[in-house]
Predict the 3D structure of the following.
Amino acid sequence: MDQLSDAARRYEQKKARLVAEFRDALARGATVGLGKQTSNLFRSRAPAKALLDVTGFNNVISIDEANLLAEVEGMTSFDAFTRATLKRGLLPAVVPELKSITVGGAMAGVGIESSSFKYGLVHETVLAMEVLTGGGAVLSCTRSNEHRDLFFGFPNSYGTLGYALKLTVRLVRAKQYVELRHQKFCDPVRYFEAVGAACARSDLDFVDGTVFDGEALYLTTARFVDTAPFLSSYTYLQIYYQSIGKKQLDYLSAYDYIWRWDTDWFWCSRNFGLQRPWLRAIARPWLNSTAYWKIMGWNRRHGFSDRLRALRGDRRREESVIQDVQIPVQRAHEFLALHQERIGIRPVWVCPTSPAAAERYPAYPLEFGKLYVNFGFWDVLPLPAGAQEGYFNRQVEQWVDRLEGAKSLYSTVFYDQETFWRRYGGASYRALKRKYDPRGNLKDLYDKAVRRQ
């Protein structure tokens, strides 16, 4: 108990120092930003003029086993969070798929995983938080107190309304092992019907899927178990997604299941050459999302891949297509058909999501009682001759609108302002901005998500 009290005291001390630094920056008229990335934004933006160091907000403050709650600081990685909870036979209700994602970052953005069919998105598992607002105040926000408007408006705001310093997160009981079953389908309509049926089952803890092509669609259902006849490991030489079509039944430790996608960043490690056996054998420290982030950051700063292509005489224009979109399950086969015809990136991650409560989050509104399918696809595609910037990404946005879905903002966005604010709660956002950041000390969401400022 003393240790937890010490963690709480240290948090209060760090908070006081950060508030003082923040207010000093405001007094100097600086545009304020964080000194470290807190969400999975896959694009470069203009840097803020004043960067605040929040890296020290990276501790689990307390774990309440009886009430299945944890208090955790915003810069705590989900890897550290899950390590702390698993020691007590617990897990956060929804753990995003990459170890590098922070708890505060998932709240400010949109986090999802294979338990989202039961518990919704990450922000729906947060019960309370302390937010440092653009006005320099730290406010306690819950679902029902005087700052509930900020609580519900915070998800998908990407740090433009404030920074989550401490969060209270829902936990669930976990067992030591996870049993996985992979089932193959050859027809997209039947496949998404099976996804819906799986999400209606009460005996499953996790549901997701992997689409390799139109005739190789795999549904993965999983549940906690007390014992395992064998254990697989996909943290080094073996690659998880390559096992899906080879094993109908598999077993992982709970920790390895939670991070089954992290070793190869789903399948994107192939873009770094790290699926070559000889290179993989000597590159173990680099087989994780944190390392891939560093490689991508270095490449953005130095333009290495562009220079390499130029040396090879490759003058083709390319477009980065990194997307996560939510589509109602009844129309998921329509989206997949468009994707296969016009985009063609493979594999595609499929993750069902059902909003956990009727409460609305205006910047990412999903309809309660409706099952959505999240499609995740990430790669670089050659542009057709004469195509405008955003040729592929703009098509994805059009399909999402037509199919009454929702698109995450972490990737490149091309919506015009009118469309953007209509889809992402413009009236609510502007009211929150006036109330909690009246002088515009933090960036505007449209500027950050679309203009990359």
In short: The chain has 16 helices and 16 strands. Residues 2-27 form the longest helix (26 residues). The CA atoms of residues 78 and 102 lie 6 Å apart. Residues 37-42 have pLDDT under 50 and may be disordered.
